[in-house]
Amino acid sequence: MTLNIIKRTAICFSLLTAFSCTDNFDEMNQNPVGATTPDLEQNFNNIKGLIKPAFTRLYISDVTWQYQLQQSLQADGWSGYMTSPNEFGGINNHNYNLNQNWNGFAWDDAYVNIIANLFKVEQRAKGKYDQFYAWSLIIKVATMQRITDMYGPAVYSSFGGEGLATYDSQQQIYTQMFKDLDFAVTDLTARVAQGEVSKFTETDQSNYGGNYSQWVKYANSLRLRLAVRISKVDPALAKTEAEKAVSHSIGVFKINNDLIKIKSPLDLNVIDVMSHVWAGLAMGADMESILGGYDDPRLAKYWEPSTQFPGEYKGVRTGIVYPTPSTYANFSRTGARTKTGEVTWMTTAEVYFLRAEGALRGWNMDGSAKDLYEAGIKASFDQNGVDGAAAYATDNVKKPIDYVDPVSATNNAPAVSKITVAWGTTNEENLEKIITQKWIATYPDGQEAWSEFRRTGYPKLFRITNNKSGGVISTELGVRRLPFPLSEATNNPKGVESGVEVLGGPDNGATRLWWDVNKANF
Q1: CA dist., res. 298 & res. 420, Å (int)
Q2: In terms of residue numbers, what domain contains 376?
Q3: How many domains does the chain have?
Q4: What is the model's pTM?
């Protein structure tokens, strides 16, 4: 995470020129409908090649500095998971002085390497090879959910059209994502019923191996995630979509073999590289407080003990004044969980916690909120290869602990949460427990953790002490979104104007997204 490692991509990009202006994507210069029938009949190669990049670009798993710009410098820190052990420059996302040279990469890369490709899949496959079109829609929704939850309004319905690339509101994007999942689930479910042999096997780089049923489960689980995300802003639609996902004949993730993950083609883990090779990523203080307080066995899977304080897991507070560039260099670095080249897109544990919240809200989630909550804890323990889930889930004593900075007492802070793990009595108390356990289980996906923190206020996290936003971003509320990319301001200014118009506030990091409503959780 050090400054000399941060680079900028050579992408020349705007949504008006996505098919003609990249430095390394020659196929976009071809006629999007130029594939001949023989091309398509040769094992669908002209379609499969367009889907492949998504497996390394949805969560960038093959180029470390690109993952750094996609997520590490933003959500991974704002989620409380991890942070830099040193301050690099005055323009730093983690102290809320947002660096726009970093913050557009996630948008640019997603549109160039995923969305533009999937648009061409639609042109080549829709109505002729709908299993591929259905598959592309699931990946499109997974991609756009991340983009809209970072930025808010984005280009969805007008992508690939003539003229102005107009932004849809986030509400419109969510509505369209539900519709896209409808098509995908309906099509692939019918093929499962017919016993169709999968056409995806050679292309699918996930653990699913092309299995249609598993992709339907993932689509349903994504639907459930989207439904819970909008539960405070549109509770009626949220309930309908959540119950649709859970009641479907194939259903959602229920066993750990259902979770979806991919293997990096280079067999590396970019988070591990940042933490160990670059020495630029340390455990967050919130992880020390919460997992340390619960005596959580996953702590030893996620992190290594500090070499500066042998035998101790020591985290660093995000957004502080660093005494020296090397003060925290030997605090805890990433552990076994991020040693492999595997990247998990969505876990079974998350799905149980989503169902638990749905049940808490009175939805039919095929189980009680308490049982689903405890099933989520068990799934996460099993996924990480640790024992003791039953005793952990019923512990009504252990709580998050105070944070003590052993080298700079000015950063000491009392624990901000007082909850135990065991199921409680009120909806608000139990929601905090659900989201806190989901936060632990979702690691290291800081994007989802940051989104849930914005939506619910949980888990309760330490506030930064060195706010350099000039009064724009509240220390109490934190960053709520990323501003629109510089590439769009340069190449699609009218589009950006359309985005700001439906954003509902200034194009800065303090404006809340559509689902991030300022109201009680219940």
Answers
A1: 16
A2: 3-503
A3: 1
A4: 0.93
